[in-house]
Amino acid sequence: MLKLHHYAIEVTDVHIVKAFYINLLGFIEDGKVEFDGEEILFLRNGDFLLELIEVNQEESPPGNVHLCFETKSIDDIIEKFLKAGITPDEGPYTLKNGWKTVFYRGSENEILEFLEP
Q1: DSSP label at 33?
Q2: What is the SS3 assignment for 100?
Q3: In 3D, which of 98, 97, 93 has the Cα closest to residue 78?
Q4: CA–CA separation, 30 vs 10, rounded Å?
Q5: Which end is more exposed in the chain, N or C (fewer Cβ atoms within 10 Å of the end residue's Cβ)?
Q6: Three-state DSSP class for 55?
Q7: d(CA 29, CA 22)
């Protein structure tokens, strides 16, 4: 069974976007991670988790988004997609905090992340 873990937005200045969501929409900071040279910040509003990924605008324009689903087993997800003939778009990775993650493209080219916390 999957559950929505977070919605992610790529931004050029995580601190400006953080202030916007905290000051105008009542979010609170819920942790941060650095991965592959990118600063990643999590904001929370109730049960909703928003991930802000700071990117270099020259390398990757801001505005990309993805949906992340939490799973009990990344290996089960990878096997299910492999049986359907679909390989990961990115990953799998193990983050410094121990989370395992893998990215795929959906049927309309949307970015889907699966996360095993």
Answers
A1: E
A2: strand
A3: 93
A4: 17
A5: N
A6: coil
A7: 8
Report d(CA 21, CA 5) in Å as an integer. 18
Tokens standing for residue 23? 């000051």
What was the pLDDT predicted at 9? Answer: 87
Say if CB 66 and CB 112 are below 8 A apart.
yes
Q: Is it the case that residue 36 has pLDDT exceeding 80?
A: no
Domains and CATH numbers, the chain: 6-63 (3.10.180.10), 64-117 (3.10.180.10)
Here the tokens at position 72 are 């009990």
Quote the pTM value: 0.69
Question: Taking residues 84-112, what's their average pLDDT?
Answer: 89
Tokens at 19, concatenated: 């202030």
Q: How far is CA 106 from CA 28, 49, 77, in A?
A: 30, 21, 13
Are 102 and 114 contacting, i.e. CB atoms less than 8 angstroms apart?
A: yes
